[in-house]
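Blinded run. Sample ID left blank on purpose so nobody reads anything into the name before looking at the predicted structure. Input follows.
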Amino acid sequence: MKILITGASGFIGSFIIEEALRRGYETWAAVRKSSSKAFLQDERIHFIELDFSSETQMTEQLRGLQFDYVVHAAGVTKCLNKEEFHRINTEGTQHLVHVLMALQMRITRFVYISSLSIMGAIREQQPYEEIREDDKACPNTAYGRSKLEAEEWLCWQNEKLETRNEQLFPFVILRPTGVYGPRERDYFMMAKSIKAHTDFAVGFKQQDITFVYVTDVVQAVFLALEKGKTGRKYFLSDGEVYQSTTFSDLIRKELGNPWWIRITAPIWLLRVITFCGEYIGHLTGKVTALNNDKYYIMRQRNWRCDISPAQKELGYQPQVKLEEGVKRSIKWYKENGWL
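Blinded prediction complete.
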Protein backbone atom coordinates (compact mmCIF):
# COMPACT_ATOMS: atom_id res chain seq x y z
CA MET A 1 0.00 0.00 0.00
CA LYS A 2 1.30 3.45 -0.93
CA ILE A 3 0.57 6.48 1.21
CA LEU A 4 1.29 10.17 0.63
CA ILE A 5 1.52 12.37 3.72
CA THR A 6 1.63 16.15 3.28
CA GLY A 7 3.08 18.35 5.99
CA ALA A 8 5.35 15.40 6.73
CA SER A 9 8.06 17.48 8.37
CA GLY A 10 5.59 19.03 10.79
CA PHE A 11 4.73 17.97 14.32
CA ILE A 12 1.75 15.73 13.53
CA GLY A 13 2.95 14.76 10.07
CA SER A 14 6.23 13.30 11.31
CA PHE A 15 4.35 10.97 13.68
CA ILE A 16 2.03 9.86 10.87
CA ILE A 17 5.11 9.03 8.78
CA GLU A 18 6.50 6.85 11.59
CA GLU A 19 3.24 4.93 11.95
CA ALA A 20 2.94 4.39 8.19
CA LEU A 21 6.45 2.94 8.13
CA ARG A 22 5.67 0.74 11.14
CA ARG A 23 2.68 -0.66 9.26
CA GLY A 24 4.83 -1.46 6.24
CA TYR A 25 3.35 1.10 3.83
CA GLU A 26 5.41 2.52 1.00
CA THR A 27 5.60 5.95 2.57
CA TRP A 28 5.94 9.21 0.66
CA ALA A 29 6.63 12.42 2.56
CA ALA A 30 5.57 15.67 0.89
CA VAL A 31 7.86 18.48 2.00
CA ARG A 32 9.02 21.93 0.93
CA LYS A 33 12.60 22.75 -0.06
CA SER A 34 12.99 24.64 3.20
CA SER A 35 11.50 21.87 5.37
CA SER A 36 13.61 20.39 8.13
CA LYS A 37 14.03 16.62 7.91
CA ALA A 38 15.23 16.30 11.50
CA PHE A 39 12.43 13.86 12.34
CA LEU A 40 12.40 12.15 8.94
CA GLN A 41 15.63 10.19 9.05
CA ASP A 42 14.34 6.72 8.17
CA GLU A 43 15.92 5.60 4.89
CA ARG A 44 12.66 3.97 3.78
CA ILE A 45 10.97 7.37 3.35
CA HIS A 46 10.39 8.57 -0.22
CA PHE A 47 10.53 12.36 -0.41
CA ILE A 48 8.62 14.55 -2.83
CA GLU A 49 8.50 18.34 -3.02
CA LEU A 50 5.02 19.70 -3.68
CA ASP A 51 4.08 23.28 -4.56
CA PHE A 52 0.55 23.73 -3.23
CA SER A 53 0.30 27.18 -4.80
CA SER A 54 0.47 25.85 -8.37
CA GLU A 55 -1.75 23.12 -9.77
CA THR A 56 0.36 23.04 -12.93
CA GLN A 57 3.57 22.41 -11.03
CA MET A 58 1.95 19.94 -8.64
CA THR A 59 0.55 17.98 -11.57
CA GLU A 60 4.07 17.52 -12.94
CA GLN A 61 5.39 16.62 -9.51
CA LEU A 62 2.76 13.89 -9.01
CA ARG A 63 2.46 12.65 -12.59
CA GLY A 64 3.22 8.95 -12.92
CA LEU A 65 2.66 8.25 -9.22
CA GLN A 66 -0.21 6.32 -7.68
CA PHE A 67 -1.28 6.34 -4.04
CA ASP A 68 -3.81 4.24 -2.17
CA TYR A 69 -4.07 6.74 0.68
CA VAL A 70 -3.44 10.46 1.11
CA VAL A 71 -3.24 12.23 4.48
CA HIS A 72 -3.32 16.01 4.09
CA ALA A 73 -1.69 17.40 7.23
CA ALA A 74 0.02 20.39 5.58
CA GLY A 75 -1.03 23.86 6.64
CA VAL A 76 -0.16 26.90 8.72
CA THR A 77 -1.35 27.91 12.18
CA LYS A 78 0.29 31.36 12.32
CA CYS A 79 0.57 33.93 9.52
CA LEU A 80 1.39 37.61 9.13
CA ASN A 81 -1.67 38.26 6.97
CA LYS A 82 -5.13 36.70 7.15
CA GLU A 83 -5.04 36.12 3.40
CA GLU A 84 -2.17 33.66 3.86
CA PHE A 85 -4.38 31.31 5.89
CA HIS A 86 -6.84 31.14 3.01
CA ARG A 87 -4.14 30.80 0.38
CA ILE A 88 -2.28 27.99 2.14
CA ASN A 89 -4.94 26.13 4.13
CA THR A 90 -7.95 26.53 1.84
CA GLU A 91 -6.59 27.00 -1.67
CA GLY A 92 -3.71 24.59 -1.04
CA THR A 93 -6.25 21.87 -0.23
CA GLN A 94 -8.30 22.71 -3.30
CA HIS A 95 -5.26 22.54 -5.56
CA LEU A 96 -4.16 19.17 -4.17
CA VAL A 97 -7.59 17.61 -4.65
CA HIS A 98 -7.98 19.08 -8.14
CA VAL A 99 -4.64 17.54 -9.15
CA LEU A 100 -5.42 14.13 -7.64
CA MET A 101 -8.71 14.08 -9.51
CA ALA A 102 -7.19 15.35 -12.78
CA LEU A 103 -4.56 12.60 -12.63
CA GLN A 104 -7.35 10.08 -11.97
CA MET A 105 -5.63 8.55 -8.98
CA ARG A 106 -7.62 5.65 -7.59
CA ILE A 107 -7.41 6.78 -3.98
CA THR A 108 -9.13 4.61 -1.39
CA ARG A 109 -9.25 7.35 1.24
CA PHE A 110 -8.18 11.00 1.64
CA VAL A 111 -7.92 12.13 5.27
CA TYR A 112 -7.96 15.88 5.86
CA ILE A 113 -6.59 17.13 9.18
CA SER A 114 -8.82 20.04 10.16
CA SER A 115 -9.31 21.50 13.66
CA LEU A 116 -11.82 21.99 16.46
CA SER A 117 -11.14 25.71 15.85
CA ILE A 118 -13.58 25.62 12.93
CA MET A 119 -16.45 25.68 15.45
CA GLY A 120 -15.58 28.97 17.17
CA ALA A 121 -17.01 30.16 20.48
CA ILE A 122 -20.36 28.35 20.58
CA ARG A 123 -22.18 26.94 23.62
CA GLU A 124 -20.41 29.50 25.81
CA GLN A 125 -23.16 29.66 28.42
CA GLN A 126 -22.45 27.72 31.60
CA PRO A 127 -22.80 24.88 32.27
CA TYR A 128 -20.76 24.33 29.12
CA GLU A 129 -22.07 21.68 26.75
CA GLU A 130 -20.16 19.47 24.36
CA ILE A 131 -19.86 20.74 20.80
CA ARG A 132 -21.44 18.31 18.35
CA GLU A 133 -20.92 17.75 14.66
CA ASP A 134 -24.36 19.15 13.79
CA ASP A 135 -23.73 22.44 15.62
CA LYS A 136 -23.38 25.39 13.29
CA ALA A 137 -19.70 26.24 12.83
CA CYS A 138 -18.85 29.88 13.39
CA PRO A 139 -15.05 30.22 13.56
CA ASN A 140 -13.70 33.27 15.38
CA THR A 141 -10.13 33.02 14.05
CA ALA A 142 -8.63 33.42 10.59
CA TYR A 143 -7.07 29.98 11.00
CA GLY A 144 -10.42 28.39 11.88
CA ARG A 145 -12.14 30.09 8.94
CA SER A 146 -9.52 28.80 6.50
CA LYS A 147 -9.96 25.26 7.77
CA LEU A 148 -13.75 25.49 7.61
CA GLU A 149 -13.59 26.85 4.07
CA ALA A 150 -11.50 23.84 3.05
CA GLU A 151 -14.03 21.50 4.68
CA GLU A 152 -16.95 23.21 2.96
CA TRP A 153 -15.19 23.09 -0.38
CA LEU A 154 -14.63 19.33 -0.06
CA CYS A 155 -18.33 18.84 0.68
CA TRP A 156 -19.34 21.12 -2.20
CA GLN A 157 -17.03 19.22 -4.53
CA ASN A 158 -18.79 15.95 -3.75
CA GLU A 159 -22.21 17.52 -4.09
CA LYS A 160 -21.21 18.60 -7.58
CA LEU A 161 -19.92 15.12 -8.42
CA GLU A 162 -23.10 13.53 -7.07
CA THR A 163 -25.34 15.65 -9.32
CA ARG A 164 -23.34 14.39 -12.30
CA ASN A 165 -23.56 10.78 -11.07
CA GLU A 166 -19.76 10.64 -10.86
CA GLN A 167 -17.69 8.82 -8.28
CA LEU A 168 -17.35 10.81 -5.06
CA PHE A 169 -13.99 11.95 -3.77
CA PRO A 170 -13.38 9.69 -0.73
CA PHE A 171 -12.49 12.27 1.92
CA VAL A 172 -12.79 11.97 5.70
CA ILE A 173 -12.24 14.96 8.00
CA LEU A 174 -10.64 14.85 11.45
CA ARG A 175 -11.04 17.79 13.83
CA PRO A 176 -8.58 17.43 16.70
CA THR A 177 -8.63 19.76 19.68
CA GLY A 178 -5.31 21.02 21.11
CA VAL A 179 -2.68 18.50 20.01
CA TYR A 180 0.40 18.15 22.19
CA GLY A 181 3.34 15.81 22.62
CA PRO A 182 7.06 15.51 21.84
CA ARG A 183 8.31 17.88 19.09
CA GLU A 184 5.38 20.29 19.57
CA ARG A 185 6.49 23.91 19.99
CA ASP A 186 3.52 26.02 21.14
CA TYR A 187 2.77 24.10 24.35
CA PHE A 188 6.53 23.75 24.78
CA MET A 189 6.63 27.52 25.28
CA MET A 190 4.45 27.04 28.37
CA ALA A 191 6.94 24.55 29.77
CA LYS A 192 9.80 26.93 29.03
CA SER A 193 7.97 29.76 30.80
CA ILE A 194 7.18 27.63 33.84
CA LYS A 195 10.81 26.51 34.06
CA ALA A 196 11.63 30.23 34.12
CA HIS A 197 9.21 30.54 37.11
CA THR A 198 6.24 32.22 35.38
CA ASP A 199 2.82 30.87 34.43
CA PHE A 200 0.45 33.09 32.49
CA ALA A 201 -3.32 32.62 32.26
CA VAL A 202 -6.10 34.81 30.89
CA GLY A 203 -9.63 35.46 32.10
CA PHE A 204 -11.32 34.85 35.43
CA LYS A 205 -14.28 32.79 34.21
CA GLN A 206 -14.19 29.00 34.17
CA GLN A 207 -12.47 27.62 31.08
CA ASP A 208 -13.12 24.03 29.97
CA ILE A 209 -10.22 22.81 27.86
CA THR A 210 -9.66 19.60 25.92
CA PHE A 211 -6.45 18.01 24.67
CA VAL A 212 -5.37 15.09 22.52
CA TYR A 213 -1.96 13.43 22.55
CA VAL A 214 -0.31 13.24 19.15
CA THR A 215 -0.25 9.44 18.94
CA ASP A 216 -4.01 9.36 19.50
CA VAL A 217 -4.44 11.67 16.51
CA VAL A 218 -2.29 9.24 14.53
CA GLN A 219 -4.47 6.37 15.74
CA ALA A 220 -7.54 8.21 14.41
CA VAL A 221 -5.84 8.89 11.07
CA PHE A 222 -5.26 5.21 10.35
CA LEU A 223 -8.70 4.22 11.62
CA ALA A 224 -10.17 6.80 9.24
CA LEU A 225 -8.09 5.39 6.39
CA GLU A 226 -9.41 1.92 7.10
CA LYS A 227 -12.99 2.55 8.21
CA GLY A 228 -13.93 6.16 7.49
CA LYS A 229 -17.05 6.85 5.49
CA THR A 230 -16.87 9.42 2.72
CA GLY A 231 -17.86 12.88 3.88
CA ARG A 232 -17.83 12.15 7.61
CA LYS A 233 -16.27 14.53 10.12
CA TYR A 234 -14.93 13.54 13.53
CA PHE A 235 -13.87 15.53 16.59
CA LEU A 236 -10.84 14.18 18.46
CA SER A 237 -9.83 14.63 22.09
CA ASP A 238 -8.75 12.31 24.90
CA GLY A 239 -12.36 12.18 26.10
CA GLU A 240 -11.76 14.26 29.22
CA VAL A 241 -12.38 17.91 30.09
CA TYR A 242 -9.80 19.91 32.04
CA GLN A 243 -9.63 23.31 33.68
CA SER A 244 -7.31 26.01 32.39
CA THR A 245 -4.75 25.51 35.16
CA THR A 246 -4.49 21.71 34.87
CA PHE A 247 -1.97 21.64 32.02
CA SER A 248 0.44 24.08 33.66
CA ASP A 249 0.10 22.29 37.03
CA LEU A 250 1.13 19.01 35.40
CA ILE A 251 4.04 20.65 33.58
CA ARG A 252 5.28 22.14 36.84
CA LYS A 253 5.05 18.76 38.54
CA GLU A 254 7.16 17.09 35.83
CA LEU A 255 9.73 19.91 36.09
CA GLY A 256 10.20 19.17 39.77
CA ASN A 257 7.83 21.82 41.16
CA PRO A 258 10.01 24.94 40.66
CA TRP A 259 8.84 28.07 42.44
CA TRP A 260 6.67 30.19 40.20
CA ILE A 261 4.48 33.25 39.91
CA ARG A 262 1.08 32.53 38.39
CA ILE A 263 -0.27 35.62 36.64
CA THR A 264 -3.92 35.71 35.65
CA ALA A 265 -4.61 38.67 33.39
CA PRO A 266 -8.00 40.12 32.44
CA ILE A 267 -9.24 39.61 28.89
CA TRP A 268 -8.89 43.31 28.04
CA LEU A 269 -5.16 43.19 28.81
CA LEU A 270 -4.72 40.23 26.47
CA ARG A 271 -6.53 42.24 23.79
CA VAL A 272 -4.01 45.07 24.19
CA ILE A 273 -1.02 42.70 24.16
CA THR A 274 -2.13 40.77 21.07
CA PHE A 275 -3.07 43.95 19.22
CA CYS A 276 0.43 45.28 19.82
CA GLY A 277 1.95 41.92 18.92
CA GLU A 278 0.08 41.83 15.63
CA TYR A 279 1.14 45.40 14.83
CA ILE A 280 4.80 44.70 15.63
CA GLY A 281 4.66 41.54 13.54
CA HIS A 282 3.54 43.53 10.50
CA LEU A 283 6.27 46.10 11.10
CA THR A 284 9.06 43.54 11.48
CA GLY A 285 7.75 40.96 9.01
CA LYS A 286 8.05 38.24 11.66
CA VAL A 287 5.21 35.95 12.68
CA THR A 288 4.43 36.23 16.39
CA ALA A 289 2.42 33.97 18.68
CA LEU A 290 0.87 37.09 20.27
CA ASN A 291 -1.60 37.81 17.48
CA ASN A 292 -5.33 38.38 17.03
CA ASP A 293 -6.05 34.66 16.61
CA LYS A 294 -4.32 33.96 19.93
CA TYR A 295 -6.62 36.48 21.61
CA TYR A 296 -9.77 34.70 20.42
CA ILE A 297 -8.35 31.28 21.25
CA MET A 298 -7.46 32.24 24.82
CA ARG A 299 -10.68 34.19 25.29
CA GLN A 300 -12.81 31.18 24.37
CA ARG A 301 -14.15 29.43 27.47
CA ASN A 302 -15.62 26.21 26.07
CA TRP A 303 -13.39 23.75 24.19
CA ARG A 304 -15.51 20.66 24.83
CA CYS A 305 -16.29 18.34 21.92
CA ASP A 306 -18.21 15.14 21.30
CA ILE A 307 -15.92 12.28 20.25
CA SER A 308 -18.59 9.56 20.41
CA PRO A 309 -19.04 9.41 16.58
CA ALA A 310 -15.31 8.66 16.19
CA GLN A 311 -15.57 6.02 18.91
CA LYS A 312 -18.65 4.35 17.43
CA GLU A 313 -17.83 4.55 13.73
CA LEU A 314 -14.05 4.30 13.70
CA GLY A 315 -13.36 2.41 16.90
CA TYR A 316 -11.28 5.32 18.17
CA GLN A 317 -10.21 4.87 21.79
CA PRO A 318 -7.87 7.50 23.28
CA GLN A 319 -4.89 5.81 24.90
CA VAL A 320 -3.08 8.73 26.55
CA LYS A 321 -4.68 10.99 29.14
CA LEU A 322 -3.23 14.38 29.96
CA GLU A 323 -1.13 13.42 33.00
CA GLU A 324 0.66 10.64 31.12
CA GLY A 325 0.96 12.74 27.96
CA VAL A 326 2.58 15.66 29.80
CA LYS A 327 4.98 13.23 31.49
CA ARG A 328 6.06 11.79 28.12
CA SER A 329 6.36 15.24 26.56
CA ILE A 330 8.49 16.80 29.29
CA LYS A 331 10.71 13.70 29.35
CA TRP A 332 11.29 14.08 25.60
CA TYR A 333 11.98 17.82 25.88
CA LYS A 334 14.59 17.13 28.56
CA GLU A 335 16.24 14.24 26.72
CA ASN A 336 16.50 16.26 23.53
CA GLY A 337 17.89 19.39 25.13
CA TRP A 338 14.82 21.57 24.71
CA LEU A 339 14.50 22.06 28.48
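Unblinding after everyone has recorded impressions. The two ends are 39 Å apart (CA to CA).
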